[in-house]
């Protein structure tokens, strides 16, 4: 083995593990594993198709096993795994799909060692420091560095890693989140089954495996995680005399929740712990005894949970396993039909396309650029776009964290900067950085560049421009929902790349920022001409305010933060801190938008910032409001199957809809609504050029202003409309995730209405008819809206 970090692989036999397979792969990528050798033993839940997809990406060497390849002696599947180990790997860990190869730093190791013999009363204090660990505090390449030290001794051929058995944490049913997040209670270190170990070996020095835990070596010696000679318990191969958790261990999630354990038995899930050979389904009595034996929850432990952020980030670069899942009660198929189904699953996710690529001349210190996906005639579609897999080699640049990143540009002025997922040091062409990511773009031109951080500063080197033909892809994947902590739902990925905004990947250049500044200046000048007060209200993203519940860690500066930093403070209201102070009441659990209570707080800030009333006076206007608890599914809950619902507070003491005098009923952009309230607190008209978050503000704006005119425009301005309405207050409302583009002041409401009517679907027409409210021409003329009502067909408001 060279002086560089060892190349680490993981080998396993799996059966029907689709529910946790993506997490298992992502976790091991996060801790430094480079390749997987996996034998599938007759999976029927989609696991094989998913592994087949990963094998095409070069992540997995897939071994297909048959029923006849199992024996009661030497595990022949391990012989097949051993034979399939690529020669490029220095060491390979042989583990199971419910086992996680966990690196331990000195602090966590010392906590675990000192916990031996402790009582349950002080269990909450053990391993708790790791609960607060962040991504940035986790050691880079810590596992491979530690393994490099162990295997730096040329006589060491195999390493035995002991288990830490984790119980159900009292969970009866499968919950949301990662396995390493949901199960944080383990057995005491002296639990006898923790003496079972799994082996990390130099494949070339193994003749065979005596069982799935112990390798028979051709030469060299076996050591434990302290580097000392392995001592067996009563000469039992695979069982050590003592438990040793030093530098690393195997976290064994043997049972998970009751539901998952029972379902695992129904699916004939292989288990390798009860006997020395892999076994099939347990009987009911055996299953109950097994669960009782391994459901050990004596000590809290958050060491693995600290890796959740990195695991989520690694998952972003993998195809979604849910797309391959087959319900467990699907009709049984013959083997050839399973293989055919797997092939069809692969084919359906591959698009045969015509793609042009233009490679830029490489500039120092770049020595090589290699793209493996997408290919000239094929690409792989994921939930979030097009899969890109590539590597770049550099010379003379330190490969510290984030020193080499990949910049992707598909929209003018907007750059998405991705970190690497793996680094190889000391290659023939210099150090090589690997990227595997999902481009949130379905067609068009994508520019790729390397961003290098050197002592001289940041350098951008163009690599390649990809052009995907507009007709290359048959369909768009709809935006989906991410399940966060405690069941909170968030946008996964939409046309604004909301997830990448949250991760801090999206950056706006100076031209986009300048466009925003120009927008603000022109809008201020326009409202000054009509003698109106103006304020832009930016609804913060749910991800920003409720980040503690989000499954992915908050990244660096987001586009909305870039924009508001450049705008005049008196021009905008961005109530992020105000909403954070409200806690869970600020946003719906199952919806992207703020709650009515959150909108009420924002409305009070609007009135105060415009100087229309003092803050304590404004708050007193709504102090008597009464709310009731209702269950809503929201725009995120409806994206899941089954639909998710959650309780929220809805205003019960006032209904603004009774004051609605006009509604053209159009869906989203182009909708126009007017409220009249003679009992309003202010004898003024308020024009709202807003977005979806404005709807929650209506119950409060309608009570403040005598007239409220709303146009769904997401901040785009129709100058003619502003002049015609002649409002005293103009509110421009948009959502933070929309701010990758500046709104327009040349926007035409008339054009939008005509386009909507021309292309409206039958369902939208029915919805528009149901909610539309007409007004006579005298009223429309007094509001300044006659021109835009005349765009509608004469029969628009009639059945």
Description of the molecule:
- By secondary structure, the protein is of the alpha+beta class.
- Strands 1, 2, 3, 4, 5, 6, 8, 11 and 14 form a 9-stranded mixed β-sheet that branches. Strands 31-30-38-36-37-35-34 form a 7-stranded mixed β-sheet.
- It contains 24 helices and 38 strands.
- Its main location: membrane.
- InterPro entries: ALGX/ALGJ_SGNH-like, Nucleotide-diphossugar_trans.
- It is a single-pass membrane protein.
- Pfam families: ALGX, Glyco_tranf_2_4.
Category from helices, strands and their pairing: alpha+beta
Q: Give the percentage of residues in beta strands.
A: 25-35%
Q: Specify the helix fraction band.
A: 25-40%
Largest sheet: 9 strands, mixed
* Average pLDDT number: 85
Radius of gyration: 30 Å
Low-confidence stretches: 68-73, 110-134, 269-280, 330-348
InterPro entries: ALGX/ALGJ_SGNH-like, Nucleotide-diphossugar_trans
Subcellular location: Membrane; Periplasm
Domain AlgX/AlgJ SGNH hydrolase-like: 482-644
Organism: Halomonas casei
């Amino acid at each position: 083995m060279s002086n560089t970090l060892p190349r680490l692989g993981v080998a396993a036999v799996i059966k029907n593990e689709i529910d946790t397979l993506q997490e298992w792969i992502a976790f091991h990528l996060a801790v430094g594993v480079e390749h997987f050798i996996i034998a599938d033993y007759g999976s029927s839940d989609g696991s094989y198709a998913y592994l087949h997809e990963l094998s095409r990406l070069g992540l997995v060497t897939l071994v297909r096993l048959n029923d006849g390849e199992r024996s009661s002696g030497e595990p022949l599947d391990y012989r097949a795994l051993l034979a399939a180990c690529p020669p490029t790997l220095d060491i390979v860990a042989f583990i199971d799909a419910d086992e996680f190869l966990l690196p331990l730093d000195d602090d966590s190791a010392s906590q675990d060692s000192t916990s031996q013999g402790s009582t349950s009363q002080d269990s909450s204090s053990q391993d708790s420091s790791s609960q607060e660990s962040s991504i940035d505090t986790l050691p880079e390449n810590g596992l491979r560095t530690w393994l490099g030290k162990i295997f730096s001794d040329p006589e060491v051929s195999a390493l035995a890693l002991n288990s830490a058995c984790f119980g159900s944490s009292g969970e009866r049913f499968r919950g949301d989140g990662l396995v390493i997040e949901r199960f944080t209670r383990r057995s005491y270190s002296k639990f006898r089954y923790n003496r079972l170990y799994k082996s990390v070996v130099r494949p070339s020095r193994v003749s065979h495996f005596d069982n799935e835990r112990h390798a028979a070596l051709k030469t060299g010696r076996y050591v434990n995680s302290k580097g000392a000679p392995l001592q067996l318990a009563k000469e039992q191969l695979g069982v050590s005399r003592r438990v040793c958790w030093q530098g690393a261990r195997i976290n064994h999630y043997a049972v998970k929740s009751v539901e998952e354990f029972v379902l695992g038995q129904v699916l004939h899930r292989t288990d390798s712990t009860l006997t020395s050979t892999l076994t099939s389904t347990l009987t009911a009595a055996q299953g109950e005894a097994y669960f009782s034996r391994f459901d050990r929850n004596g000590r809290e432990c958050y060491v693995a949970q600290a890796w959740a952020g990195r695991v989520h980030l690694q998952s972003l670069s993998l195809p979604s396993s849910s797309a391959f899942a087959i319900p467990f009660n699907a009709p049984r198929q013959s083997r050839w039909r399973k293989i055919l189904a797997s092939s069809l699953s692969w084919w359906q996710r591959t698009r045969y396309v015509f793609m042009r690529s233009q490679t830029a001349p490489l500039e120092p210190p770049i020595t090589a650029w290699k793209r493996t996906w997408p290919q000239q005639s094929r690409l792989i579609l994921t939930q979030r776009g097009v899969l890109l897999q590539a590597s770049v080699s550099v010379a003379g640049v330190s490969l510290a964290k984030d020193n080499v990143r990949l910049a992707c540009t598909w929209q003018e002025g907007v750059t998405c900067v991705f970190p690497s997922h793996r680094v190889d040091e000391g290659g023939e062409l210099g150090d090589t950085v690997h990227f595997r990511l999902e481009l949130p773009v379905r067609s068009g031109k994508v520019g790729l560049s390397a961003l290098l951080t050197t002592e001289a500063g940041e350098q951008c080197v163009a690599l390649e421009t990809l052009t995907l033909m507009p007709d290359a892809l048959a369909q768009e994947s709809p935006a989906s929902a991410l399940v966060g902590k405690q069941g909170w739902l968030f946008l996964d990925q939409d046309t604004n790349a909301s997830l990448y905004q949250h991760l801090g990947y999206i950056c706006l250049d100076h031209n986009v920022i300048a466009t925003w500044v120009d927008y603000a200046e022109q809008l201020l000048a326009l409202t000054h001409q009509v003698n109106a007060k103006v304020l832009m209200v930016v609804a913060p993203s749910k991800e920003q305010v409720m980040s503690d519940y989000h499954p992915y860690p908050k990244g660096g500066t987001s586009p909305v933060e870039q924009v508001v930093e450049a705008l005049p403070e008196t021009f905008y209201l961005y109530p992020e801190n105000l909403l954070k102070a409200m806690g869970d009441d600020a946003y719906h659990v199952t919806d992207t938008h703020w709650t009515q209570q959150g909108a009420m707080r924002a409305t009070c800030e609007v009135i105060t910032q415009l100087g229309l009333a003092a803050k304590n006076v404004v708050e007193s206007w709504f102090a008597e409001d009464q709310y009731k608890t209702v269950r809503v599914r929201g725009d995120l809950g409806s994206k899941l199957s089954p639909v998710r619902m959650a309780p929220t507070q809805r205003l019960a003491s006032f209904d603004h809809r009774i004051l609605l005098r006009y509604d053209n009923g159009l869906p989203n952009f182009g909708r126009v609504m007017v409220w009249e309230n003679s009992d309003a607190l202010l004898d003024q008209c308020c024009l709202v050029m807003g977005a979806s978050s404005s709807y929650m503000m209506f119950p409060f704006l309608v009570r403040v202003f005598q007239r409220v005119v709303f146009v769904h425009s997401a901040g785009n301005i129709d100058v003619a409309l502003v002049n015609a309405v002649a409002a005293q207050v103009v509110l421009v409302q948009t959502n933070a995730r929309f701010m990758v583009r500046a709104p327009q002041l040349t926007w035409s409401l008339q054009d939008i209405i005509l386009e909507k009517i021309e292309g409206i679907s039958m369902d939208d027409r029915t919805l528009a008819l149901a909610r539309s409210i007409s007004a006579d021409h005298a009223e429309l003329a007094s509001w300044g809206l006659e021109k835009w009502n005349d765009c509608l067909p004469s029969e628009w408001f009639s059945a």
